[in-house]
Amino acid sequence: MRLYTFAQAGRTRIGVANADQDCLIDIGVADPSLPGDMLSLIAAEQPVWEKVRRIAETVRSGKPPLVLPLRNLTVRAPILRPGKILCSGINYRSHQEENPAATIPSEPFFFAKLPSTVIGTMEPILYPARTEQLDYEVELAVVVGKTMHGTSEAKIRDHIFGYTILHDVSARDVQFRDNQITLAKNFDSFCPIGPCIVTTDELKDPESIALRSYVNGELRQNGSTAEWIFPLNRLLFFLSGIMTLEPGDIISTGTPAGVGLFRKPPAFLKPGDVVRLEAEGIGSLENVVS
Length: 290
Fold this sequence. Notes:
There is one protein chain. This protein has helices spanning about 25-30, 40-45, 45-60, 95-100, 170-175, 180-185, 230-240, and strands at about 1-10, 10-15, 25, 65-70, 75, 85-90, 110-115, 120, 135, 140-145, 160-165, 170, 190-200, 210-215, 220-225, 250, 275-280, 285-290. It has about 290 residues and is an alpha+beta fold.
């Protein structure tokens, strides 16, 4: 399934894409008993997920308010306020190789982005006055489906709800001034997520997903999750051994080579730039720097 959060007539709704992926079926219209927000839907677990899956499979056509053309809708971040957003640093061999100061870590490294940074596709990335080095990173992100605590690597996939794209926006001059990684990653609008969540029944193999980023149509990053230093099961096993991961938490998995900081010469974002991120099997996430 492909699940979207969208806004219509001042209300936030959940839609599941039809077979052609050009329309959304409003699940609240199809079945008013279903949760009205994505976090609640994810937390409801398997029986509710199956209801939504049946809606996606059985509703072949229809008219508003049940079936809505996707092009006419305002798509929001699939989860508007995730509980936790944890991002993996230096988890692609190509990114490690382009960074002269980086070595292959002995265990996964993570930093947090805060819920207040989340925006959706087509929402503006705000250029802060405190930086002159605004940078982009395309990342595949995991959406946790079931509570994880000390979960074994063999059972990790049973606890994943789906996948989405996360844009890890950074202010590099802030980041490398006294190692202020938390501040550099958490300006308002620094975490675009979307456009949707693709559930694990549709995206079965996250270990070989092509990722690309474009700035004003120029290809900047072109990699694959096959480059991971730590595979997905290892990342989530490591994290769940330290903290409890809850339904709706978002875990990103690092970025491939090509970020602005390490290009020669460096190529940072500026107001007016259009950044488009693509992940095979998920879609595209696009934002303008404002």
